[in-house]
Amino acid sequence: MTDKQLRLLKGTFDVLILKTLSWGPAHGYAISRWLRECSGDELIIEEGALYPALRRLEERDWIEAEWKLSDSGREARVYRLTRAGHRALEREVTAWRRYITVFTRVLEARPGAARS
Amino acid sequence: MSREFDDERLPLSRTRPVADDVRRELEFHLDQRIAELMERGMTRERATAEARASFGDAAAVEAECRAIERRRRASVRRADRLGTLWQDLVVGFRVLRKNPGFTLTAIVTLALGTGAVAAMFSIVNGVLLRPLPYPEPDRLVAIEERHENGSGSVTWANFLDLEARARSFSAMTSYGAWTATVIGTAQPLRVRTGAISAGFFRVFPVRPALGRLPVPEEHRLGASPVAVVSHEFWRDHLGSPGSLENVRVKGSWDVQVVGVLPPGFDFPDHTQLWWPIELMEQSLSRTSHNWETVGRLRAGIAPEAAGRELDQILASLGPQYEPNFDATGAVVTGLQTAQTGPMQQPLLILLAAAGVFLLAACSNLASGILARGTARLGELTVRSALGATRTRLARQLLTESALLALSGAAAGLLLAGLLLRVLTPLAPADVRMDRVGIDGWVAAFAVGLAGLATLLFGLFPALRLSSASTVTALREAAVGMASGRRMRIWNLLVAAEVALAVALLSGSVLLIKSFGRVMETDLGFEPEGAVALAVDLPSVNYPGRSPRISAFHLAALERIAVLPGVLAAGFVNRPPLQGNGPTGAMVVEGKPFDPSGRFTGYAIYRVIGGDYFRAMGMRVLKGRGFGPGDDISAPKVAVVDQAFAEREWPGQDPLGKRVKPAGMDSNSEDEREPWFTVVGVVPSVRSSGMTDQVRPTYYFDHRQRPPYRSASVTYAVRTSSAPGESFAALRRVIREVDPEVPVVLQTMPQLVSRTVADRRFTMLVLGTFGALALLLAIVGIYGVVSYAVAQRTREIGVRRALGATPGRVRTLVLRSTLAAVVPGLVLGALLTLVSSRALGAFLYGVSPFDPPTLAIAVGALGAAALVAGLVPAWRAVRVDPLIAMRSE
Prior knowledge:
Number of helices of chain A: 4
Oligomer: heterodimer
Largest sheet of chain B: 12 strands, mixed
Distance between the termini of chain B: 42 Å
Radius of gyration of chain A: 17 Å
Shape of chain A: elongated
Number of strands of chain B: 23
Number of helices of chain B: 24
Shape of chain B: globular
Order of helices and strands of chain A: EHEHEHEEH
Distance between the termini of chain A: 44 Å
Strand content of chain A: 15-25%
Helix content of chain A: 40-55%
């Protein structure tokens, strides 16, 4: 892990998990692999941290789990987005988008511009 | 493992234990990662190391996951349970609504049971359990002197010694309470007043709401008279003045009001005005028992220890004053116990009776629910076959019972409120119904009872039903068979109910009989047709020695006598049954006045006026009553009662004998009293109560005794019209003689019946329980027998088809009824023998083991049971065999 890698902002992890699951049910390992691949190894995520996060989301009824046979022929705990989870994802994504837009605008602003 | 099964789901979706669930998931991750890394060419060892490193602290992750998962599952279970409860409730409501007859009977039965218990508990709680509303009430005690024949008030002289010497008490007070007259208000008033000694407000510490308490200097003979009044009196009769300057109360005295007590201070009961008892000259005789005494124990001193100390003090006083000393010791009792004393036991008995009644109601319900449960066996069995577990079904049944119990408790609370309202006017005076209310405690008690009832009658059928194996149950449900075992349980319930009803019923019959005996008592006078009119001449206008007192009476008697319909009128200083009143030693001529023996010579002292004997319906047995000529200047004469004559002159003619009331009207020696010649004998009347023994009494004419003896009297007026009709005229007459004299009117029968209020109260309440228990038993027996008949319709049809006569079928049904009822009757008789012993103290003229009573109770229930069984038996006979056999 190098300095070039990004530390994950608090609260964003859940959104990423929900996003991953929005493509379809997946077990924990698949989620972690997708996260790794999508972010191009730029996000620092201790893989282990995924699991408590998943359980917490399950506790909030945003996702639900079921033991199922995986492609490898072993039983895996497969997670699926619930209806509430879908709604939560939409909410979170909108919020993050606005946050990023506003944040970017502030960062790119020049002195005096705000008043005009 | 089995805990993890969800009741409702089929055992397909089993859930893993938490630890397993978490471990497997994490293992899966690591294995997949290792496999992936090995695919990229790593050795297993390197791949494992790499996988673990990128995973982070696996142990911590695992622990965290477990914690979250446990929490999640717990909350899911909670939600599930709530969901089930809701479902149970919904189903329960539906089931109860679909059977309004059953539901209504059950709720009414339960409401009667819980209502009775809640009402009785409210009374017991308010009267016996709730502490007196004074600081540290457990340290308050009542003090009495013990004498050779019982105990009673402490003499003033002894009280002073005890107060000065006893170390067990932080304060002690002697007080008297009576109703006195207040004038100058809108109407002349009769108010309860308390004459209190200096220690009173140390025994009952209180901060006046206004003004001050009397100071020690005011607790002296000859001090300027002061008083404190109750908050209510200050508000209602003084007009709530902000300053007490120049606020005086006149009537029986003329006192300066110096203080107002806070609202709610109420000792002695109902007192409105308190003033120093020391303002009255006190008799220093050691045998003159006038006042009540209460004390406040020092912290940590037991009443018994205090009693022993007082015993010692009295024992040391005795030798100094013998023979004019009669105390043999002291009795120290908790004040609350002392105040509620006579009603304590009856109230507890009534509470127990209410409990027994509730039990009977519960067994009634249990049999009802069991019958209903059997009818629903089919439904339950199907649910069971579809996967509902036994616990689940039992819970459903319990929920239904709880619904019933709670509705019953709610209805019961309403009923209890109603009962209290009905009982309040019936309660005897020493049951302070104003302190009784349905409060939080009682509500909690009723809900607790409902809970208990739920367990009692809900669990039993629930167990029975849920233990029935599915196959048997299905078969029974299909055939409609009342199994022998179930019948046995029913029989047991019916027997229990019958037994409890027999006990309650015979208890009530015993009390009713006693009451009848009491009312049959020869009173010695005839209350019917007479009116009792109490007057109290305010001593500000009628000083103790004033001839105005006699003048008032003579004027009043004259005017009353000429009222239309008045047959005779007279007055007495204390009417019969209203307490002993003035009682004293007397001297009989020719017998030595032996002071040591004079306590057996006590007699009740009555001062009368007008034609009292005729007005009371007391026949003069010998000689004559007093006449107009027996005035102050005439020779002194007395009339004695039979008991007096028999005690003093057995076998002799009492007429012409001479007596004198020693020391009654003067504190000095009796030598100065003149002799009174006995001129007549009248029947004895009871002074302190109908069941009390007759006490020897002598009568004097008011004109020949000091005037103050007749300042407070009760007129007896015999009329030919209905007693109530003369009230207005009598009131008018007294107002004409003196508008500042308050009048209290009642009919003589009312006055008599108030003295038996406690008996009537106990009898009415227990009688109600008894009658209701009988009713419940009838309903219960009827329900069970008709249900059993319905269940046996098929069997009866077969019997009929095979040639059984209607008579045989009826016998069959009746026999099964009797199988339950007869053991119940026997049990009830045994129970009665035990329970009526508790009633012993309240019985009069009837023994607790009264065979006729038992016969009445057993007979009533037996007859009721027969009737209750006969109707279904009749119906059974009318069953058409063909239909019966087809009936499923």
